[in-house]
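General statements about sequence and structure are easier to judge against a single worked case. When preparing material for the folding task, we compiled for one chain both its residues and its C-alpha cells. The amino acid sequence and the C-alpha cells for this protein are reproduced below:
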Amino acid sequence: MELEEFSIKIKEFCEKINIDITSEEVCKFFEYMNLLLECNKNVNLTAITEPNDVVLKHFVDSLTINKYIKENKKVIDIGTGAGFPGVPLGIYRKDTSILLMDSLNKRIKFLEDVCEKIELSNVKTIHARAEELAKQGEYREQFDYATSRAVASLNVLLEYMLPFVKIGGYCICMKGSNVLNEIENAQKALDILGGTIEKIDKFCLPESDIIRNVILIKKIRNTPNKYPRKAGAPSREPIQ
C-alpha cells in the first residue's frame, strides 16, 4: 500500500471515531505499519498482515480509547505486544506520557526501534513482567491509566493492571464481543484489588461488523501489598 492510499484510508476510518489526524501523524502511522510488517517476517508480532486490516484492527482499534484519556496524564500499556494500543495513542496524543511494557524482549527491541525511527519522545519501553514491575515503588500506583488489549481474562488482567494505577485513576480494558462471563467472574478480583466498573462501552469498528467492548474500571482503594502475586500465579490461580 502506498502512502496516498494509506492516508485516505486511515483518515476516513479516524473520522468515523471523531479523530482528526494530521499529515505528520499519518506519515508516522505509515512508517510504523511498514516497520511492523517488515519485522514480522522474522519475529512473530502480529497475525494481521494485510495493510487495510492493520489500519482498522490495530491502529483505529487502538485509537477508540482516546476519548477516555484526559490531557497530560501517565499511561502504562501492559502486555503491549507489537505496541497496541500504546504506540497509536502515543502518535496521536503528544501530551500523554506512555510506558510500553512487555515480557518478551524481542517485542521491546522492536518497539524501541519504532520509537526512535518515528520520533516518539513521549513513549518509553520496559522489558518486564507485570507481577514483578508492580512491586517496585517507582511504578506501583503511579499511573493515571493502565491499558491492555487482548492479554488475559478480566479477573487475571485486573491483578496485572490495578496495582499500577493511582486511586482515582482507571484501567481501560479492551475486549472483544463476549464480556459478560468475564465481568461476572471478575467481581471478587475487583473487590479485593480496589476497583469498580464505571462503564462498559460496546461498539463496532468502522465499516465492519467487528464488535468491541471497552471496560472502564476506576481505582477506588489502594491495592493490598500482596498483589500482584509472584510471576505466573495470577494466570494459574485467578482470583475468583
Q: What stands out?
A: The radius of gyration is 17 Å. The mean pLDDT is 96. The first helix runs from residue 3 to 16. The chain is about 40% helix and 20% strand.
